[in-house]
Amino acid sequence: MLAIGIIPARFASTRLPGKPLVDLGGQTMIERVVRRAQQSSLSRVVVATDDPRILDHVRGFGGEAVLTAADHPSGTDRVHDAYQQLNVQADCIVNIQGDEPFIHPQQIDALVNLFRAAEPPQLATLVKPVVNEEELFSPHLPKVVLNARGEALYFSRHPLPYQRQHPQAEWLQHHRYLRHIGLYAYRPDVLRAITQLPPSPLELAESLEQLRWLEAGYRIQTAETELETIGIDTPEDVERALYQLKIEN
């Protein structure tokens, strides 16, 4: 099976300009993401960037990178652009966030393994159990509810389900909540199709792109992980990441 990992990496960032090239303990963030992804079962790992500085940097440390259009509205569109440039026919494409330097190879493999089934999913993503109230009520950590087959029913920045019979302080005691981890895998034909979809009402309300796909009728299979990652969006996140590196080393 040919599984390709594509890492969208823009230079522009409102809160942390040049984010992919930020130094994290002697390696840039994008290099750490690439090295982690290369430890998975992926057949190939490619960085999709809109900036020649990132392109040259990735190639400089021996990684593979392609230059995409600068005006893509989302990482999904950038991934599709890169995949088209590769001129290969993959069985699945994994969209790996370029600001997740602590991504675990096992998390990538959990999605790739779903596509080894006789009937592979259209799309797949990761979920993780919510462990405390801070996670449950944070609008920055989208929650997800699933059907009996492990397919996503809905994603929301608000805790779902709402428990009418219990006070909010007790919600975690009475229901197993799941939050969404933003790692995606697609069949190539589905990736192409979803890039043609216009923004949807639910997506605009929640600011969650995956709701566009659900509204269009696509099914999103999930795999569960217990492993934690640290996303980098602000200078404060960089400090947290450096502290985590000290712990690991």
The total of beta strands comes to: 11
CATH architecture of the domain at 1-103 and 229-248: Alpha-Beta Complex
How do the helices and strands follow one another from N- to C-terminus?
A: EEEHEHEHEHEHEEHEHHHEH
Shape: globular
- Provide the β-strand percentage band: 15-25%
| Overall pLDDT metric | 93
- End-to-end Cα distance, whole Å, is 34 Å
Could you characterize the architecture of this molecule?
This protein is an alpha/beta fold and 249 residues long. It has a domain of 123 residues: Spore Coat Polysaccharide Biosynthesis Protein SpsA, Chain A. 33% of the residues lie in helices and 22% in strands. The chain is built from ten helices and eleven strands. The strands form two sheets. Strands 1, 4, 5, 6, 7, 8, 9, 10 and 11 form a nine-stranded mixed sheet that branches. It has a two-stranded antiparallel ribbon with strand order 2-3. The relative contact order is 0.17.
What is the fold's blueprint, element by element?
Elements: E1 3-9, E2 23-24, E3 27-28, H1 29-38, E4 44-49, H2 52-60, E5 64-67, H3 75-86, E6 92-95, H4 105-114, E7 123-129, H5 133-137, E8 143-146, E9 152-156, H6 171-174, E10 178-186, H7 188-194, H8 201-206, H9 210-215, E11 220-224, H10 235-248
Parallel strand pairs: 1-4, 1-6, 4-5, 7-11
Antiparallel strand pairs: 2-3, 6-10, 7-10, 8-9, 8-10
Give a quick set of tags describing it:
Spore Coat Polysaccharide Biosynthesis Protein SpsA, Chain A; 22% strand; 11 strands; two-stranded antiparallel sheet; globular; alpha/beta; 249 residues; nine-stranded mixed sheet
